[in-house]
Amino acid sequence: MEAKAIARHVRVTPRKARRMVDLIRGKKATEAITILKFAPQSAALPVRKVLESAIANARVKAEKDGESFRENELFIQETYVDEGVTLKRFRARAQGRAARINKRTSHITVVVASKEGAR
What we know:
There is one protein chain. The chain has helices at 14-24, 29-37, 44-65, and strands at residues 2-10, 74-92, 98-114. By secondary structure, it is an alpha+beta fold. It has one domain (2-117): CATH 3.90.470.10. The chain has a 3-stranded antiparallel β-sheet. It is elongated. It starts with a strand and ends in a 5-residue tail after the last strand. Keywords: Ribonucleoprotein, Ribosomal protein, RNA-binding, rRNA-binding. One of its GO terms (cellular component) is cytosolic large ribosomal subunit. Part of the 50S ribosomal subunit. This is Large ribosomal subunit protein uL22.
């Protein structure tokens, strides 16, 4: 059994979010939550929320199918960060000039699976 969660338009640059995703790829879900909880980077919070959502999705899917759910058996099968839309902003400057500011967003995807459902 596998479950998936996606967060779109997260206001974190993809490069910073990929650092957090690389830390947890392939680990057990409970261990990954602990790692993200104590990571000092600001991108750890949105990645942890997506992971917790994927675990909750797995719980709902198991209850729907009538299977037993064990959170300790879940591991992170797949996780990646894609670039989202870029928000373009302008800041006024002296003598009629304007500075262009690009604010980047990310799409974070996490797929958790149980050991028996592994590829």
